[in-house]
Amino acid sequence: MFTVPLPLLLLLLFPLIGLICCTPTAICPDVSASSNRPNYCKKACARDEQCKRSNKKCLCDGPCGLSCVNPATTCHPLVDLPNGFIRTPGDFLFGSNAEYGCNEGYVLVGPSQRRCQANREWSGSRPECRLLKKCGPPPEIPYAQHDGNSYSGQYELESEVRYNCVSGYHRYSNKGITIAKCLLNREKAAQWFGPDIRCQAMECKRPSDPLHGKVLGSSLTYQSRVTYSCKTGYRLVGQVQRTCLAEGVWAGNEPTCEEIRCPPLPQLHNGYIEGDDTHFGAVVVFRCLEGMNHIGAPYAKCQDDARWSHPVPTCLSGCHIPEISDGHVVNHMPSQFVLHGDRVKVECALKHEIAEVETTIVCRNGTWSHMPTCIPVLCEHPLKTFGILEGGQIMLEGQMGAYDYAQYISEVEEGRSILFQCKKGFVLIGSPKATCVSGNWMPRKKRKCVSQTHPIVEGQIAWMRRRRSAECEPISADYRRKIVVTKGNDSPTEIMIICSKGFHFESARTDGITFCKNRRWTPKVPECIPDDCQVPIRNHVFFLDVGSERILQSGDIVLHGGGARMICLRGYELHGNDKFECNYGASIQQIGYCRPKRCKLETDEGNKYSSNKTELHHNEEIDMICETNVIRLKCRFGEIQPNFRCINNESSSSSCHRPNDYQPFVAYRTTNISGRLVRLDMSPQQATFPKNTIIQYICVDNGYTSNANGIECRNGEWFTRLLPCVNASPAMFATQSDGMCNMPNLASSYRILNIKNAYVSTTSRFPRGTILKIGCAVGFLIEEARTMEMRCHKGKWVTAGMLHCYSDGTELIFSCQEYGMQQFVGNAVITCKEGTWVPKIPKCITLDPLNENDGAPPINLELEQGLHTVTPRGYLVVSISTMVRLQCLFPRKKGQPRWEVSTTYRRYPQSWTEIHLHGKSGMDAYELTVAAARPEDGGFFHCVLPNGHRNTVKIIVKDMKCTPLANSTNLRIIYTSSHLFVGTVAQFSCESGFYVDGSRSSTCLSPGKWSHSLPNCRALQCPPLVITNSEMKAVVTTFRAGGVKCRTPKVPSNGVIVGEVKDEYSVREVVVFECKGGYMLTGIDYSVCQASGNWTPTDVKCMLFG
Fold first, then answer.
1. Poorest-confidence range of 536-550, 564-578, 1013-1027?
2. Longest distance between any two alpha carbons in the chain, whole Å
3. In what order do the strands lie in the sheet with 213-216?
4. Nearest to residue 323, comparing CAs of 267, 365, 373?
5. Are strands 950-957 and 876-878 parallel, antiparallel or unpaired?
6. Which residues lie closer than 8 Å to 469 by C-beta, 6 or more apart?
């Protein structure tokens, strides 16, 4: 195998390019009218008809263009090529191609292809094979790498390259040579000789089985994995898999098998639990006492997740059948026992009726829903039923005979009778007697006394019959309504319907009066339906309909049989019952209320208080006693203020390495001293930074001073912070002890303009005072400044500005940093076209919460119990069931804003509140709450001020997540959120001895896909040593980073090192300092062992406190 030098390759390609562009399959050049058309060309043409002979056609003849050619034309055979070969077609017809090639060790000079032309000659000149005097790329050895660094891929004679096994592999034996050398072979051609090396994978010791578990895996070589599992009844605590590393050790720590135990079950009231075992697989049985109703599962089993399969049930008490005076319970005997939830019907004895509306009673945990009573059935005074009997009188029958029915006798008991008697000269029309039956006089026909001498008595009787035949169907009363006859008495022509308590007319316009016309009641007799309920007035709450999950406010309607659940606002807790159940217009149980939350005090060893209380009421205060000071704490709506602890333990594993970029920055972190936040500045030159360190980049002359110019160290990784840049003198990129600067590590979109046609490697160094002009690489466009200067000053690169390079067609999507608090002005998407952004770059205007300029109001967002993110398009995406609070900031004294929403799914509670924002307390905000968000809640939410100005927030409710990224060898992935919701950032880092080749992070985007693919972890390799002294000799044992140790660091006065103190520390190992009692630590309390064998500067001091 051989390669051709680049200049020679280009020389050979030029004839080939001319040949390719003129093949019959390509577009034929138009040279018919050109004076440069070769003399050997046939007649030019444009179509076959222009060719005179029938055996000729208009075909493309290379540089001659379209010509009249005989397709059967052939060329002469080609002569063999010395030290090479020719691939030719068998027929040598017009348009056939011949390909030339050389034997190994020779290179082709001339065209690699020739074509048969219409003049029966082959195109171009005959090539030749010349002896190759350089070696190509060194041979590839499995799992080995060499130190060859030829950029052209060609090596001179006598060149040597050395081979070493890659990380994770070692030499099979010490025999054989590790060098390959470029020499001439017997045919005088350049060829590589050697190496004789074999590399095999490192092996790890077989890990031991954990107690109550085992290790699965047959391979122990480099990058092999073993899997841990536990026996039944135990669960794994730690890593499920471990990987064999390049160093021959297993990654991570050995896991353990922990016995599975479920928590103790709570007491079962009105019952008992059989079994007290809490181990995995244990089963307990729930038993209710005799006569109790069992609501829930009959058993529970301890599962492998240390949870019981079912919750504890409820045992509800039954009821005894009551004794009803003048009545009884149907199909039951007094004192008989019935279960919770049973319904029974009450009936009264003869001549009695139930005074209540509902005759069915329900047993509810030992108590009846209500207790009905039976009262005697009475009939009203006859005058109300029959009126005055003209020409006669009404008599009441008694034991002593009949006597006049006095006016004061208002009611008559069941079974009594009255007599109708006419005076002398009158005749009674109708029955002479009426009896009280079920509260009514029967028969109800009105009687009359008619004079015996009246001439039309017979006609009167006939008329009454006709009138009776036109009566309407009688309307009966029941538990829902009462019937009052207002006209007609025995033959009612007008009645009034009165709904019973707990009922109302179905139509609000109905007055209950109806008339009998043509044997029909007009209007139609109205129906009485059960009363609905109004949501009661409660402060600091909102209600959720149990059926539709619609949010209700005080005064909203809850239908009969329905219910609502009361939910306390943030900072409040429930006291009493939270269920509102509507039954005939009234709540079955008294609803509770919400009071401010109480605060629980932390009981750590370092926290001591002035009293033995474990919790505080709202606005209650207590003193926290630390070793050096006393802090006054106050409970405010369930939160302790200030949030202060006497001790703050930090883990060294959570430190972050210095960011790998060249923009200057300042570094600091904040700590709590005596209840107030104090800023501690750090050196920007240190190699690592402790957790909670904030880096803010120094402003440069590019106009972007309010973008995301900050990062924060969290859990060993850097995360973006929306912080402005700071105005300070530019910091320096790299440091050299001799004042010289290393080659800057520039991105592929940049290039150095003032170094031309010169070989520059990554190991090149530049003297003090050097100025590099940086521009955009070919194919990239500049955002603002055309160039950027970098100057070497005291071993550090200093830049006066930043240069942003973008390729043509690049799109930038803009959104405001503080969503809702800023107003976006302009287009959200701009495109790079010919070095200009089209359209103009948009702006974000910060809105005034005090509304002093009568502008749009800012909207502050608070989200609880869910996941959320803001898309690049400026939409708020939240997961289902998230609680969203939209707080429209506007002074209450200036008027009442209103919320307008595009969704009609439900109504949302709105109320005034006070919030703390940007260090200011007591700011007025008109708040809208979306509780338990659902997809139907998505839409636009507008806060409109009295003057018409508005601000809008768009909400999308959807569970959009990305799938976990498949991990690869030596790659560590840390997610900012374990839920992998949209907006989650995956941070990539490699194990020690490897570097990240690719993107260092990937973001979960709205379609549920990651923005970048997984990077690779490449082994760190030291560059070859350059020895300029001929008397100096060196032996390279390994190119892998490592082998440097640091001595015990200097301990500050009145301070100590936390943990074990060692004589030597490995590279990147961290030590933590702390002060003795009575002293306060200032400066950086971390120090990291660097590759140079020195510790990072700390400037730590222990100051006497007091």
1. 1013-1027
2. 166
3. 213-216, 225-230, 241-243
4. 373
5. parallel
6. none
Query: pLDDT tens, 579-619?
Result: 888 888 888 888 888 888 888 887 765 677 878 888 888 88
How buried is residue 447: exposed, middle or buried, by Cβ count under 10 Å (0-12/13-18/19+)?
buried
**By the 8 A CB rule, do 612 and 604 touch?**
no
Residue 1036's pLDDT is 44
Task: Write down the residue that tokens 């007025």 correspond to.
Answer: 924
Is 886's pLDDT higher than 90?
Answer: yes
Radius of gyration of the chain (CA): 49
State the CATH class of domain 812-957: mainly beta
C-alpha 259/C-alpha 187 separation (Å) is 75
Residue-range domain boundaries for the chain: 73-131, 144-201, 213-259, 271-317, 319-376, 378-446, 481-530, 533-595, 654-729, 812-957, 1020-1105
Contact (Cβ atoms closer than 8 angstroms) between residue 867 and residue 850: no
Burial class (CB in 10 A: 0-12, 13-18, 19+), 215: middle
Please give the Cα distance from 295 to 273 (Å, whole number): 14
SS3 per residue for 1-55? CCCCCHHHHHHHHHHHHHHHCCCCCCCCCCCCCCCCCCCCCCCECCCHHHCCCCC
Residues 619, 636 contacting (CB under 8 angstroms) = yes
Whether 378-446 and 1020-1105 share one fold: the answer is: yes
- Rounded Cα distance, 29 and 363, in Å: 102
Beta-carbon contacts of 686 under 8 Å, excluding residues fewer than 6 positions away, are: 658, 667, 1084, 1088, 1096, 1097, 1098
The string of pLDDT tens digits covering residues 52-111 is 888 888 988 888 888 899 888 889 888 888 889 888 877 888 888 999 998 877 788 888
Asked whether residue 271 carries a pLDDT value surpassing 60, the answer given is yes
CA–CA dist 169, 202 (Å, integer): 5
* Domain 213-259, CATH homologous superfamily name and number: Complement Module, domain 1 (2.10.70.10)
CATH assignment of 378-446, among 2.10.70, 1.20.1070, 3.80.30, 2.40.50: 2.10.70
With beta carbons less than 8 A apart as the criterion, state whether 183 and 190 touch: yes
Its pTM stands at 0.30
| Overall fold of domain 533-595 | Complement Module; domain 1 (2.10.70)
